[in-house]
Amino acid sequence: MTSTPTSLISLRQAGKVYRSGRLHFEALREVNLEVAPGDYLAILGPSGSGKSTLMNIIGCLDRPTSGHYFFEGHDVSELTDDGLAMLRNRRIGFVFQSFNLLPRLDILENVELPLIYQGVSRRERRELALAQLEVVGLADWRRHLPTEISGGQKQRVAIARALVTRPGLLLADEPTGNLDSRSAADIMEVLEEIHQAGRTVILITHDAQVAARARRQVHIIDGHLTERPVGARPVGERPVAEETA
Amino acid sequence: MILDAVRMAWRSLRTNRIRSLLTMLGIIVGIAAVIAVVSIGEGGKDAILGQFRQIGANQFLLEVTDRRSQSTLVTPEDLELLRSGLDGLEAVSALRQRLGLTHKTRPDGSKGAESYAIIAAIDPWYTEILELETIAGRQFTDSDHRQGRPVLLLSESTAQAIFGTTEVVGRDLELTLSNYRLQGLVVGVVRTLSGSMQSEFGQMADSGMMERVPGELFIPLATLERLEGRPDGYAMLMAASSGPENTAEVAGRLSAFLRRRHPEATESSYRTVIIADILQQVDTVIGYITAFIAVVAGISLVVGGIGVMNIMLVSVTERTREIGIRRAVGARTRDILTQILAEATVLTAIGGILGVVLGLVFSYIVTRIVGFGMVVDPRVIALAVLFASAVGLFFGLYPARRAARLDPIEALRHE
Ligand SMILES: Nc1ncnc2c1ncn2[C@@H]1O[C@H](COP(=O)(O)OP(=O)(O)OP(=O)(O)O)[C@@H](O)[C@H]1O
Ligand SMILES: [Mg+2]
Predict the structure, then answer these.
(1) Cβ neighbours of A56 in B, within 8 Å
(2) Which has the closest alpha carbon to A157: A114, A105, A110, A199?
(3) Neighbouring residues of B233: CB distance < 8 A, sequence distance ≥ 6
(4) Phi, psi at B281, each rounded to 5°
(5) What part of B 270-289 touches A (C-beta under 8 Å)?
(6) DSSP summary character for residue B211
């Protein structure tokens, strides 16, 4: 089986079953999704619907338990753990709802982190990370610890870290979930710019307003994925204001 | 990459300073013990054996152990007979020791504090068995011995202690030996390549109130005998056999000879001590002590290693989320493995270095107090630090593998 040549991401009948002991839970069911390079996609869905599960698979952190996932034409199931690590390192940037900065490293070192695993020299790392911090407007804060900056700033650091390796794909799992509306708007602005710069952006959210900024929207409910035209709201679904993990 | 890992390890250890230090404690103690054993042990061996080192394997002592007839069981006639020929006996010398009182001399020449000195009265054969190296002046001549002249040889430390200088040839020194007074003339400064055998007097004097002059002070045996009169016998002989292979045999023959000459002597009247045997025994005892402390150090290192493993496991658990983040941004399993291993190894290597420092400081203090030289072997230090690092590497392996095997998603979910 091969992927569509023009697709960056191609999910074919992908499913994910979580097993713990005798219990198993089907978090994704027969998901089909094609994402072209340069797309700006929002994945919408209520809490527990399988958004993070899907993002983990798209981000090559996890593999589907059934079906196929092609990333840049490669069948992810056939890659080794180290192969996946390489993909994550060079092709994908992650932005998490909870920022996930390393608390003991300063801002600059946090941004440098992915470059360490590329074997980039210390000096070059410094330069690249600093340039990226410049882009998100936090170069002056480079020697501060993550605990010393605001949530919005943390998320911008996280974005800088995600972009420092110049990946083709930026994955953001609820990037505005922990931010006030001003900071959230700020972050959405940054994502827009990244999209404008030609990168593929996949945004995960349960907030319809946030999702509306994307060019494309898919909805996920109980592990089922459906694509809707932008602006349409599925019958019976209310925006979920619940907290997320 | 390794360098990055070491740098990361260093930072993470620094953020948990107290914990890191406590974790290192076992390693520090273990390595310090090893270093101390080696530095003090070798120094001690040198100190104990050093004075015997120069002595050949063919030398032995004969002591009269029978106190009642001590003065008659080895007579001057016995000595003459022995010298005229006992198979395999190279030389035999009678040695008498006396505790003498003397005064230190102040720089202006006036009498200073009174102190004790151990005086060895030696016959002409002494130097055939134990060599004396002349530093200044001369040694005893035949006529010194024949006429019993009041001449003195001092070792450098003795000269230094009494006169404050080693340029003492030609100076007078007054000695008081129990009831007699000796107006001596220093004719030479010597270095004993071997130690003298004086010990009993040393202990006696040391327990007294007065200071004891270190080193050796020699007079001719004849000089002592002119003061005290020719004795009926001797309590101790020094002898050398013709070669190391027959030392025990010649020693046996010597006591057999004496027993024949003195029918009143019993089986245990004479005791022979072969110097090489003493050396061997001291060596063995030191070997046991070293082995014992090595075992203690080994246990300490293993316990320390387990402590390191334990703390690394805690640290891995604490940092599960960090590991998840690192995996998410592209760390491979082996990067995580390297990181944790580097941390454990850097931890124990620093422990090793601190242990070396502690061991050296401890050895320095002990050797200063006990008074023997400290032996610092850079190879041992390098080996100790290397070994400490190896302990970290070994005990870090399990936590590192645990960390490397963490599922990235589970790790990211971890609070
Ligand atoms: N490791 C796991 N083992 C078992 N079940 C899991 C596991 N991870 C997720 N699930 C289940 O899979 C379902 C989807 O989880 P997922 O985290 O993808 O939801 P989500 O859409 O991201 O929700 P939220 O908006 O709250 O983040 C949930 O019901 C969850 O309980
Ligand atoms: Mg989620």
Answers:
(1) 409
(2) A110
(3) B64, B70, B71, B72, B73, B74, B75, B76, B78
(4) -65, -45
(5) none
(6) P
The complex's ipTM? 0.89
Instruction: Evaluate: CB of A18 within 6 angstroms of ligand 1.
Output: yes
User: Cα separation of A131 and B394, whole Å?
Assistant: 41
Question: B238: part of which helix (H) or strand (E)?
Answer: strand B236-241
The one-digit pLDDT tens for each residue of chain B (415 residues) are 678 888 888 888 888 889 999 999 999 999 999 898 888 877 777 666 655 555 667 888 888 887 666 567 888 888 888 888 878 888 888 888 888 888 877 777 777 778 888 888 888 888 888 878 888 899 999 999 989 899 999 988 888 888 888 888 888 888 888 788 888 899 999 887 544 444 444 444 444 556 677 778 899 999 998 888 887 888 888 888 888 788 888 888 888 888 888 888 877 888 888 877 877 887 788 888 888 888 888 888 999 999 999 999 999 999 999 999 999 999 999 999 999 999 999 999 999 999 999 999 999 998 888 777 777 889 989 999 999 999 999 999 999 999 999 999 999 988 7
User: Tokens representing A136?
Assistant: 């998100």
DSSP class per residue in chain A: ----TT-SEEEEEEEEEEEETTEEEEEEEEEEEEE-TT-EEEEE--TTSSHHHHHHHHTTSS--SEEEEEETTEEGGGS-HHHHHHHHHHHEEEE-TT----TTS-HHHHHHHHHHTTT--HHHHHHHHHHHHHHTT-GGGTTS-GGGS-HHHHHHHHHHHHHTT--SEEEEESTTTTS-HHHHHHHHHHHHHHHHTT-EEEEEES-HHHHTTSSEEEEEETTEEEEE-TT---TT---------
- The CA–CA distances, whole Å, from A207 to A173, A217, B223 equal 12, 12, 115
Pairwise CB contact (< 8 Å): A86 & B327? no
Place of tokens 């080996």: B383
List the beta strands (DSSP E) in B45-195. Answer: 59-64, 89-105, 111-122, 132-137, 151-155, 172-177, 180-192
Shortest Cα distance, chain A CAs vs residue B387, angstroms: 29
Q: How far apart are CA B355 and CA A98, in angstroms?
A: 43
* Protein residues placing their CB within 5 Å of the ion ligand 2: A 52, 244
Please tell me the distance from the alpha carbon of residue B151 to that of residue B148, in angstroms, as a whole number: 8
SS3 B371: coil
Q: Between B4, B334, B409, which is nearest A56 by CB?
A: B409
Residue A219 CA to residue B18 CA, distance in Å, equals 51
DSSP B233: -
Query: Could you say which ligand is closest to the alpha carbon of residue A53?
Result: 1
**How many CB atoms are located within 10 Å of the residue B165 CB?**
11
pTM of this prediction exceeds 0.90: no
Residue reference for tokens 């080696």: B38
- On the 0-12 / 13-18 / 19+ scale of CB atoms within 10 A, B90 is middle
Structural contact between residues A102 and A110, judged by C-beta atoms closer than 8 angstroms:
yes
Put residue B148 in one of left, alpha, beta given phi > 0 → left and psi -120 to 50 → alpha: left
- Alpha-carbon span B293 to B183, nearest angstrom: 52
Chain centroid, CA B285 distance in Å: 12
Which of B129, B143, B148 has the alpha carbon at shortest distance from B54? B129
